[in-house]
Amino acid sequence: MIRVENLVKSFGGFRAVDGASLTIETGSITGLIGPNGAGKSTLFNVIAGVHEPTEGRVTMDGEDITGLKPHELFHKGLLRTFQIAHEFPSLTVRENLMMVPADQPGETLWNTWFGRKTIRKNEAELLKKADEVLEFLTISHLRDEKAGNLSGGQKKLLELGRTMMVEAKIVFLDEVGAGVNRTLLNTIGDAIVRLNKERGYTFCVIEHDMDFIGRLCDPVIVMAEGHVLAQGSADHIMENEAVIEAYLGTGLKNKVKAEETKEKNLHEDHGAQPGLGDEAGKGGEA
Ligand SMILES: Nc1ncnc2c1ncn2[C@@H]1O[C@H](COP(=O)(O)OP(=O)(O)O)[C@@H](O)[C@H]1O
Ligand SMILES: [Mg+2]
C-alpha cells in the first residue's frame, strides 16, 4: 500500500500539489483523474522520486519512502511510465525491452533502468523474457520493428512492457491513453487487467478517457488544484457535483443548468428531464 500524507510540491511560490492525501491499496487499479494542471503528474513525480516534496510524506507498506531516488524506488518495485513515451527510436522493440538496470546507484532512473549497458551474460535469458513480454502484450509481430516507427499507442504498450522486464510491484501510468486509438487502448487496458490479476501488479493510472477509467479502475481519485477532491467508484465519481464542477467549471455548469431549466420548461408536458450527467458524458467524449 502506498500512503501519501499532506503532500505539497511548490515550484517557486506556486503549489502544484497542495496538501494531497491518498492511499493506493495493494492489488488495486486506482484511477487518478482531474482537469489539466490539477497536479496529477507532479504528484506522480514526487511519489516516484523525480521531485523532492516540499512537505508531506509517502510510505510504501509502512516504510517511509519520501524523497528516495528513482533508482532506489525502482529496486523496491515502484516504477512509473511517462506522459510522453520514452523509447530508443533506433533500437528494435525487442532491443528496447532488453535494456535492463545497470544497477549503478547515483544514476538517474533513465540511465539505471534503460541504460545502454546490456548485461551480456544474461542475454539469452533477456531475449527469452523479452519475447514472453511481447507475446503477453500481443505485439510479437512488432519485435524487429524500430521503436521510432511505432504509433503512439504501440509506444505506450512498449513502456508497459518494460515494467514487465523487471519485478515491478506498483506501476504508475501517466496518461496511457493519450493519442491512442480505441483498439490499442483496449489492448493496453486488457494488459493492465491481466498484469493486475495474473501477476499481482498494483496500478495507479492517470487517464482522461472516462470509459477506460470506468472499465478498469476502482477506486477513482479526483484531483483539482493540487489536492484530492473526491474518491470512490467510477459511477459514484461521475455523479459527484464537485467533480463535474471541477471539470466543466462553474460558468459552464451554470450554463448547462440554465439550458436544462429551459428544456424542462419547454418539455414540461412530456416530462423530459435531461440530466447533467448526460451532458458531462458527452463533454468527455469530445
Ligand atoms: N517543473 C515545473 N515547474 C513549474 N511549474 C510546474 C512544473 N511542473 C508542473 N508545474 C505546474 O504545476 C501545475 C500542475 O501540473 P501537472 O502536475 O503537470 O498537472 P496535470 O498532470 O494534472 O495536468 C501546472 O500549473 C504546471 O504548470
Ligand atoms: Mg499530466
Q: In CATH, what is the homologous superfamily of the largest domain? A: P-loop containing nucleotide triphosphate hydrolases
How many runs of DSSP E, i.e. beta strands? 10
How many structural domains in the coordinates?
Answer: 2
- Flag low-confidence runs: 101-116, 271-286
Q: Would you tell me the overall average pLDDT?
A: 82
CATH class of the largest domain: Alpha Beta
Protein name: ABC transporter ATP-binding protein
Biased composition (Basic and acidic residues): 259-271
Pfam families: ABC_tran, BCA_ABC_TP_C
Domain ABC transporter: 2-250
Descriptive tags:
11 helices, binds magnesium ion, six-stranded mixed β-sheet, globular, Rossmann fold, 286 residues, alpha/beta, four-stranded antiparallel β-sheet
Describe the structure.
It is globular and about 70 Å long. Strand 9 and strand 10 form a beta hairpin. The protein has helices at 40-47, 70-75, 93-98, 109-114, 123-136, 152-164, 182-199, 210-216, 234-238, 241-266, 276-285, and strands spanning 2-11, 14-24, 29-33, 55-60, 63-64, 78-80, 170-174, 202-206, 220-224, 227-232. It has 286 residues and is of the alpha/beta class. Helices cover 42% and strands 20% of the residues. It has a six-stranded mixed sheet, sandwiched between helices. The structure holds adenosine-5'-diphosphate (ADP) and magnesium ion. Residues 11, 16, 34, 36-42 line the site of adenosine-5'-diphosphate (ADP). Adenosine-5'-diphosphate binds at residues 11, 16, 34, 36-42.
